[in-house]
Amino acid sequence: xxxxxxxxxxxxxxxxxxxxxxxxxxxxxxxxxxxxxxxxxxxxxxxxxxxxxxxxxxxxxxxxxxxxxxxxxxxxxxxxxxxxxxxxxxxxxxxxxxxxxxxxxxxxxxxxxx
Amino acid sequence: xxxxxxxxxxxxxxxxxxxxxxxxxxxxxxxxxxxxxxxxxxxxxxxxxxxxxxxxxxxxxxxxxxxxxxxxxxxxxxxxxxxxxxxxxxxxxxxxxxxxxxxxxxxxxxx
Lengths: 114, 111
What we know:
The complex is a heterodimer of chains A (about 110) and B (about 110). Chain A contains no helices and ten strands. With about 110 residues, chain A is mainly beta. The termini of chain A are far apart. The mean pLDDT of chain A is about 95. Chain B has strands at about 5, 10-15, 20-25, 30-40, 45-50, 55-60, 60-65, 70-75, 85-95, 100, 105-110. Chain B is globular, with a radius of gyration of 13 Å. In chain B, strand 7 and strand 8 form a beta hairpin.
């Protein structure tokens, strides 16, 4: 596809379960970002991958959150032992190069933790 | 780290009126300031951006102004239309290259 693809679009899980959210960036984009958007809130930075550099994990809220990017393309955000406060829309974005430039966002994965 | 404040959180205007949203930031080294529009159920989309070497940029009915001395920048939408109704986010690029977003402004344009 031409845009950033995220799956699943919706995920309902029980408290304590692990979840994986997937992001397929635009082909050729070297930078990939994860943001979290809680209901009615802004975009909270989680993690940033740029090429082969070590990821910027400074926004991850706890050690239950982790992310990886395999082969410089697809990324997976994993949340272990989910809590109700993890309920949010998780947005992935990619951009063509490092530094300031346009981010292309996917439509997000809506996570609901019961 | 970079801190971005956005005001107002909600804005309601009559169709045809202008809308202004303002953001302030903390890191004087920041040099890239985009604005994103998010429609319901979609991801945010870039509508305009400005870099620190210019003070104003226009694109049809939207414009962005930047005051680096005061560390604030604003989005101006003229002749608003119902399809302008959305959530608008400002952002600032920090020294590591990532975007830090404001809290968002919900704009409602009443027909």
